[in-house]
Amino acid sequence: MQPTGRLHLGNLEGALKNWVALQNDYEMYCCIVDWHSLTSDYEDTSTLQEKIKEVSLDYLSAGLDPNKCAIFVQSQVKEHAELHLLFSMITPVARLARVPSYKEKRKELGLDSYGFLGYPLLQAADILIYKADYVPVGKDQLPHIELAREVARKFNTLYGQVFPEPEALLTKFPVIPGIDGRKMSKSYNNDIAIADTAEETTKKVSVMFTDPQKIHKNDPGRPDLCPVFHLHKIYTENYQEVHTLCSTGKLGCVEDKKNLARNLNQKLKDIREKRKELEKNPEKLWKVLDQGAQKARAKAGQTMQDVRKAMRLIQ
Question: Which of 6, 128, 200, 263 is the most buried (most CB within 10 A)?
């Protein structure tokens, strides 16, 4: 993940919970990609370290265990950059320009830097530097995984077998609605942060969009179209009952939101308490990142020795 600061429910449900489960079965590397963040936020880096700290806190409080996986900052493992440079020598510019996210974000954000064009190639280096077999992603990231596979295949053809072709480990990647009904995103200012207090969460839920046709309490609702019910399906055990009560006009939106806020706060209680404890000891946090970088550098260093030897950069 990019260091954008405190993570929200979309990050938690869409990726982080899955990573926590996978760490028990795989050798796993969890990278906070600060170089990637510079493709759009290069003008002001004054809050970068604070944002890295916030993401790290959410990683650990959600259950990532530094004894089971490497948690580290991308720029602390220079091999990522070296491999990216070498990959750039064998990758046509036209191929990078066809990546869907490049075309979309170039138009949307007005970005046109060399680093932005090479973003997917750096991502390929992030993956292949660990000779990864699998990458847990949502369907929106499949074009990036395919590029990594192509780069691995071309490198192996040119210089000999070094890299496996990584496969996407597709997971259920729900689009979590924000308080305005759009996809939850900090850029939309519609997110509920993992670290929000119970009071902050309740306040945000209280202003969430609901079914626009359910104006009065007793009006039948359409829960399948309601962002509040979408969150009920994740955080409320008896969400089927909520569906019935809403669709028959027996549950008003105000009460419904109060119930969701209570359930949501209960589900996040342990994560939030762990986060508060971690905040008391920032030295431990940076130590985790340093140890993760050491483990990552050891693995990445071995890969780069194989790469240099294959390309005849060393004897």
Answer: 128
